[in-house]
Amino acid sequence: MAAAQTQAPEAGASAPGWRKVEDAKAAETAPAGLVVAPGTHVLLTLINSVSTKHSAEGDRIYLQTAYPVLVRNRIVIPPGSYVEGTLTEVKRPGRQKDRRGEIYLRFDSLTLPNGVTRDFRARIGGLDGNVNEELDKSEGKVKAGSNKAGDVRTVAETAAAGTSVGAIAGGVSGHPYEGLGIGAAGGAAAGLMAVLLTRGPDAVLARGTTMEMVLDRPLNFDESELDFSHAMPPMPVAPAAPAQTQQGRRGWPL
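User: That's the sequence. What structure does it adopt?
Assistant: Structure tokens below.
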């Protein structure tokens, strides 16, 4: 009987002493803190303007969060957290093919208002609906909006000017209708050449533009890293300047 009492409990036995040891080990190995899951969308506001005209590959972009990210009803990424990114490729607009500028960007790091920093890689998942640029989510590419209306207007204006000149010249020569046709055709041809010899619109992301960042990996934070009681308030970002007209953005032949 004495020997039986000293034997260890069989597997699955619920001896109180053993249970306490197992619970302690599980608590030590359990992940502490809060995790922002992959696929989380983070709303950002652009601090510095970028464009295919003035920016180059490798330039940095600076943004800040515009809306809090919560995990289990706890603010993990508060508004005013800073995000830093990189322009991985910048394509100037062409004259005949690829006449729209393109910007490729990625997000690299996050800094909370209390200075806690995380490095990561994230992509752009949404763009402000007020901007003219187009977004390719799969490639992280921002492309300048189409300028077909401006090109048509240029051809129409030069055709109208040619028509007026042709009418005057035809009237002087005694053939007004022939002058009208020649003038209109010449004006339209001149307008088309002007379109083909100028660059297309540049891609522009102005200061104050809002966009969404989509995380591609988890961000882990310990409870001690989420104390924002002494953090600085968010920096106000001036709204984006009024968008330039497509005619002004096209520029002249270089």
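The mean pLDDT is 73.
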